[in-house]
Amino acid sequence: MSGFLDFEYTGQIMPDLLGGLQITVQATVIGYAIALTLGLLIAVVRRVPVFGSLLHFLMEFIRTTPLVIQLVFVFAMAPANFSPFTIGVVVLGIHYAAYTAEVYRSGIEGVAKGQWEASRALSLPTSRTWGAVVLPQAIRKVIPALGNYLIAMFKDTPLLFAIGVVELLAVAQQVGSRDFRYVDTFTVVGLLFLVVSIPSAILIRRLEKRYVAV
Amino acid sequence: MSPSDTPENTTAPGVEGNAADAPLIVFDKVVKRFGDLTVLDHLDFNVEAGERVTLIGPSGSGKTTILRLLMTLEKVTEGHINIGGEPFSHMPRGSGLVPASESYLRQRRKSIGMVFQQFNLFPNMTVRKNIMEAPVHVLGLSKDEASERAAELLDLVGLGDKIDAHPTQLSGGQQQRVAIARALAMRPEILLLDEVTSALDPELVAGVLDVLREVAETTDITMLCVTHEMGFARDVSHRVLMFDKGQIAEEGHPDQIFGDPREDRTKSFLKSVLENGH
Ligand SMILES: Nc1ncnc2c1ncn2[C@@H]1O[C@H](COP(=O)(O)OP(=O)(O)OP(=O)(O)O)[C@@H](O)[C@H]1O
Ligand SMILES: [Mg+2]
To answer: What number is the ipTM of this complex?
Structure first.
């Protein structure tokens, strides 16, 4: 064992860790898909007078309580036939929907009043006003902000460990307690997170340039 | 069809045989308030089918508000607006009238088009899509029919070659001509024009006004036009309404209003417009 990383040992534990990484990435991607769609729905429905205010209050509550507590709480309350992965992904998605809803909302509010008025002057049905005029413009503007939440979510997936999802952190914990080589193991885990998040960040910056430049 | 063919203050050519030959647009004691501010104060006026009316008056006199009420972008506070002999701001219920519901308005406003000072084209769509959107999704035209209509109208406004451009690639004057084409694509009975050249660089104004002159000459669309372009108003309109403080200060044939205004408020307003270089 010499230098910063023991390559032989790293090679030994890599298959297990990659298995964990795969779960982490899956949880992020599915959770993100939930956050993107649910957040959009919330942002639109929030404009309905009374119901919207209730929804706003609920989202405020979700944003101001820790994700890990929400995970543990829902896991404890959920029927036993839901797997920890399913519960984890759904809670993660809903938690982040509370954030993406705000992002969408700012995008929607940023669409010029004249766009609504022109839609009305043309008698467009509500579905076209939203679907063809307002949302395409709103979403375009917030793509970078939404992208940032993808990375934030990826970094939050280790919390699923708390409800027994065998993602990267859980695997590392198992490997570490088996071999008592925590430093090596967690160094690799850290690097694996970087390997995923740095290219993602670069990709998001690109998207940002492409969409904001218009 | 020149404005001087029609006697002042009365019916314009092309009156449709609608409900008992009532005027097309009737404002009946319309009051519009924003909070404490009374913008329209028991306003009464009629517009005949096919008539082209120019609204002038100082800033804040309520000209835009009148157009916005007709476009259902605002609601009356008191009074009634009728269009085509039927209630517009209100709808029949039981034996009386109640404020119009959203779905009632949706039906009624299809025959009205509006062109805005700021164009308000949809920047996420091409010029063609901007024009096709309402014919396809409101009138139920097929994509081909709507596309054909878009091409025809773009030729009319002199932008046939810009059909696949995006609005952001066009000058203000071109955008406004597209906006006119977009409004016309709905074949409106009434066209509302709110200072459509005010946001344009001076050299682009004439092109837009020429298009509107053409529309005025070749169609019998009823036009309500707010403008500071007095030459255009004089050429195109049958009647000029001078507004002040939410009421009509003076009305008459354009030659009379511009050549021989009787009210002091009209005189001083016209003087201020001339001094500001419009
Ligand atoms: N949504 C609104 N809320 C409050 N006040 C309003 C609103 N819309 C218009 N007003 C006020 O109503 C008055 C009349 O406005 P309007 O836009 O109809 O005037 P205008 O004759 O078109 O003036 P301009 O020549 O400046 O366009 C103004 O004092 C304006 O500030
Ligand atoms: Mg105005």
So the answer is: 0.89
